[in-house]
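Continuing the batch. This is chain 6 of the set; chains 1 through 5 are on the previous pages. Same settings as before, nothing changed between runs. Recording input and output for traceability.
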Amino acid sequence: IDEAHQLEAVATGAFTTSCSLDQVQALLSQLNDSVLRGAIGNGLILTLSRKVGRPFAPVISGVTLPPDRDLFDLLADVTLDARRWLSDVRGRLDAGPGGGGVRRAATVRFDHALWERQPDLRTGLLRLGACLSVLHLGLRHVMEDLSERGDDSGAAGVRGRAQFLGEAVEVLRGVLASAGEQVAWAEADRDLVLSVAPLYPGAQLREKLFDVYPTVALVSATLTVGGSFAYLARGLGLSSPALRPVHTAVVESPFAWREQALLLALDDAPAPRGTADPAYIRSLTDSLGQLLPAVGGQCLVLFTANTVLEECLQALRPSLAGRGITLLGQGLDGTPTQLIERLKAESNVIVFGSGSFWEGVDVAGEALSCLIITRLPFRPPDSPVAAARAEAEERQGRNPFDTLSLPEAVIRFRQGFGRLIRTRSDRGVVIVLDSRILPANSRYADAFLSSLTPVARIKGSMATVLRRTAEWLGRA
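Output for chain 6:
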């Protein structure tokens, strides 16, 4: 598996299951329409009543469904309850700091604290799960009846709906049981989507991958942090005693990094404040405004926030255009592939990128001679899975910044750094515009620096950085 540093995130996404309330309601409408009733014969409700029995027996324990209620009416009630809860959640979030009435997806994680605050929500989800369980079981019986009658087409149609309901029930089970090794949340925009993910995907990877193949090779240029595989092993469950022995190896780089790359750190770099802070953006724009005219082109500038990228680009583009320099921004001037192709083809192009530009970009030769990292790539633990992992670390007496945020940022920093040197003949400079890269300014600077392949390092003022850049690139 190449680029195996991404395996934990990819596996977590792959083993996440979701249930859309809109899709559930659409399916209920399909099941209750006259066409399907006619296809089944005596009507779906009557068929389910005969096959499942009355009162409906819930599959999720702890709920008794009224025997005298029409199943679809009951489902309509509980889905309406869920939508009311969704509306309430969105309203409270939009009214909070920074809400401003801007429509955006609202995410709420299901945990013990939420159940205590919203006991009616748990009851409502139990009722919804029980209703869907009954409907799922009934559809399976209907499917069997249709198959016995030789109606393969009808059976196939019911089979797909039964499968969807079965998946929805499993998601609701996960939501109601979410704790420990599972994370569950609701995301509300125009729809309400319930999702369940593993806290870490180690158990699933062991079942689906590591225990299936006799040998699994995980390969990447950035599997270690500070020379250790511990962060990777923990995230993938490789340290589990249930797993067969794991062998590790670090292969030396084929590049002569000390001769090919120079790392420059600006000792008066912009203070790393919030990405929306106007003073920080002005300071960053000023630094880039001095560096980019001197570089002239063949440069990639990496950002951690699209908003900062766009503000810097709009502020700098006119003056750079007057100097014959073309400034291109991700999401503004073409697809990532188009931007990279222009960087390769035109010597006066500078590309501002974020997200995917931190890895996977392969520009060999002089077309990429300068890489500027505007900010160390820390990600806030604002996703439900990241927040749950951070809380789990705290419960174990560990600092989630040190055990989660920092290793992840170091790996991403190394990926970004690696965009510069792609062949043995490449030569270039990396300029870091974040003062936290200097040991005098942060306790974790050495975590970033020690994870890099040894390169020549220089810190200094803007004048020093400009001079050494010109000398290294032969433009003095």
